[in-house]
Amino acid sequence: MTANPTRPRPLFVLIGLCVATRLFMLGFWPENYDRFPVDVDGYWHIAGNIWAGNGYAVGPEPTPTAYRPPTYPLFLAGVRGLTGDRPVLALASQAALDAVTLIAIYFLAMVITGARPVAYLASFLWAVYLPEAASITRFWSEPLCALILTSALLVFMLARKQDKLWQYGVSGLMLGAAALTRPEFFLLPLMFAVLVLVKRGEGIGGRALRASLVLFGCVALLAPWILRNALVFDDFIPATTVGGFVFFVGNATLDEDNYLYHRGTAYGLIKLEGRAPQPLWINAQVSAQMPRSEMGLDRLYAKAAWRLIRDYPGRFIKLSCIRAVRLWLSVGFGRYPHWKSLFVAGINSGLLLLGFIGWLTARHRSEGKLTPLVVVLVYGTLVHMPIEALVRHVFPMIPTLVVLSALGVVAIHQSRAWPSVIGHGGPSTQP
């Protein structure tokens, strides 16, 4: 049967739904901008300095910084160059990022399953995923990271399927870009290299070459940022100068009896008041020794965090487990959750359950294709457990989860039809 050429294809309908959902959230979702300003993390401010020719800098008198990774500010600088100083248009541009992510999800699901129903369903789950859609009301880097990480996973899966050396290198480049967007993914390229090394059916030499290409691609992309930081700070800074600060904020309450009650960034700053200067992104009057003391300040925070963990190891383990719940369900902060948190908990619980069903039913037929998806989810969870964990930190991993969730939906609906859906002359891979 010939398709009606005038009828929009499902993928384009899903793209439109994705964009419309995010623009609706931007315009109508109730947000507390007094508590969390639009540029709460300073990305738009750095982008403005980049576009004005002041370099990667912050402050009223632009001072070089490394407290934020560069990919997202560079993206915003490009948007700012096209739209001017119009934050609303820049926020709306993130709907386009999510639309491209949807396309990447579609093709990722096609590479893994070869089934268009699964690919369409995974894309639909992303299109209507309201927690992430609401994140475009702020200048947060998660939407861009979701696109880069999903694209990196897609290229890596193509490399495993087609066994083209250049694809391994490109996947490494994209994993490096993900690390320069969200530093918590800094070690993920190493995990992917291990996946290549343990793959069966190839000689150790060939596996070592392919794993090296993944790592080389990552290092090649990180190198300019590391070199820039070495020249500016006279120090080795592979990611940012905020890691120690985040580490401390997440564990600042370990020496208090009600340590499971989450207090957030502001409280973490108060804990070190009198023992350290205010960090660069809080202090409006940058001291003369900045920026060279930026990394030293971050190490001060890390040292304080390690001291707390050493003194209260049991509390740290318990809090880390609680943070895994906070990360995925947005509850467990020591107080009755807001209705938005319960809403997120319901959605993510459903996706996790469906994802587990999908993995459980398809893992034996997938020939290892699901393993990289599981690695992303497990790694992304474990890396946040020792530090501060908020639900928006899982958004880059949601595209991975919705592929598994779509498999779960199909498994429930059509549990006896897997051979006709996956792996045995499945539907056409054309969109």
Termini separation (Å)?
Answer: 16 Å
Poorly predicted tracts of residues:
1-7, 274-291, 417-431
Q: State the shape.
A: globular
Percent in helix: 55-70%
Q: Total number of helical segments? A: 18
Strand content is: under 5%
Assign the structural class, choosing from mainly alpha, mainly beta, alpha/beta, alpha+beta, or little secondary structure.
mainly alpha
Largest sheet: 2 strands, antiparallel
Number of strands: 2
Number of domains in the coordinates? 1
Integer-rounded radius of gyration: 22 Å
What does this structure look like?
- The protein is mainly alpha-helical and 431 residues long.
- It has one domain.
- 63% of the residues lie in helices and 1% in strands.
- It is built from 18 helices and two strands.
- The chain has helices at 10-28, 43-51, 71-83, 87-113, 116-127, 130-134, 142-162, 165-179, 188-197, 204-233, 243-251, 265-271, 294-311, 313-329, 339-362, 371-384, 398-413, 418-421; strands at 57-58, 63-64.
- It has a two-stranded antiparallel ribbon with strand order 1-2.
- Strand 1 and strand 2 form a beta hairpin.
- The longest helix has 30 residues, at 204-233.
- The chain is globular.
- The two termini are 16 Å apart.
- 45% of the residues are buried.
